[in-house]
Amino acid sequence: MTDTTRTPGTHDEAAPPAIEVRALHAGYPGRPVVENVDLTVPAGQVVAIVGPNGCGKSTLLRTIARLHQPGSGTVRVGGDDIWQLNRRRAAHRVALLPQSPRAPEAVTVAGLVRYGRHPQQGLLRQWSREDENAVREALEATGTTGLAAERLDRLSGGQRQRCWLAMVLAQHTPVILLDEPTSALDLGHAVEVMELVRQVAGSGRTVVMVQHDLAAAARYADTLVAMKDGRVVAQGVPAQTVDEALVKELYALDADILRAPGDASPVVVPRAGRVTVS
């Protein structure tokens, strides 16, 4: 495994944070999902949102991405209220990779990555050398250059996920949102994707991801945000945030917290036969 030492991108302390969420409420008619959430994310960080199923993680991500309109509260990206921007300008700030993305039938990898440049196109701006360079750089960054001519549906799950990440990178947004980027991947491919996420943040971009694997979130994120029942119940540096009490609160699970060799990141070890039924 490669070194996972955290190297967040540098940022001007006087500049606004990459993301600032204040008093956010979001949900559906008669069913609140996100309640009074505050979140501040500096530029160049990886933030992992964890919590049980249905706690509001994905709704929070979609609200930041300007895909799910909040009932109240504000979401600022780069100092501007994302909901006061039009869709094209918002797409220049934030890119979202959903949990189960869909691609056109028989699309090649290169064709998929080119879709990431669509927000840059318009009536007065057609495909350019800048777009071609962005696609090439995204393929190189994700190690998918050799797959450019291949059909996406003929690749392995790990290869496809790297290709989807390349599409998101090609959008050239300062903020990238990932909804469970390692779901359905084996351990090797999951580590590969998480290492790539760290490299993206090291280049100065901000990554906010929903992550079910608490140990992976704790190892690769700069900040951990724990949610339950639509609210943030804990937030901070993973090594100081993940403890037995948090695991019990989130998952009704008795567990021991060990420290991983090398970086001392927290590892959750469930206690056999100690599940608490709420």
TrEMBL record:
GO terms for cellular component: plasma membrane. Keywords: ATP-binding, Cell membrane, Ion transport, Iron, Iron transport, Membrane, Nucleotide-binding, Transport. It is a peripheral membrane protein. Its main location: membrane. It comes from Streptomyces nitrosporeus. Residues 19-254 form the ABC transporter domain. GO terms for molecular function: ATP binding; ATP hydrolysis activity. CDD domains: ABC_Iron-Siderophores_B12_Hemin. It is found in: Cell membrane. Pfam families: ABC_tran. PANTHER family: IRON(3+)-HYDROXAMATE IMPORT ATP-BINDING PROTEIN FHUC. GO terms for biological process: iron ion transport. This is ABC transporter ATP-binding protein.
